[in-house]
Design brief:
By secondary structure, this protein is mainly alpha-helical. The chain contains 4 helices and no strands.
Length: 82
């Protein structure tokens, strides 16, 4: 029985369907680590991957909100220090 047999594909699809809500967060953690290791050189690719994973998991709005909050906090911080 091969890796891509019908039985294995059905099992993988079943697991994805049951854990769809976890995919966005898991991919987000992985891409953050990749960005850290590559020092941001792959940020464009990982951002697209994050977006696709959150869209798949149905958490697009939550991710966008978190990113906006982090960016606005970073923008305020340096201005307040000046």
């Amino acid at each position: 029985m091969g890796l891509f047999s019908g039985r294995n594909m059905r099992k993988a699809q079943s697991l994805l369907d049951k854990n769809r809500h976890k995919i966005g967060g898991m991919v987000d953690k992985a891409t953050d680590q990749v960005d850290k290791v590559t020092k941001g050189k792959t940020a464009g690719v990982t951002a697209k991957l994050d977006e696709a994973a959150h869209k798949f998991s149905g958490t697009v709005g939550e991710q966008t909100g978190e990113t906006a909050d982090i960016e606005s906090t970073d923008d305020v911080g340096p201005e307040a220090a000046e």
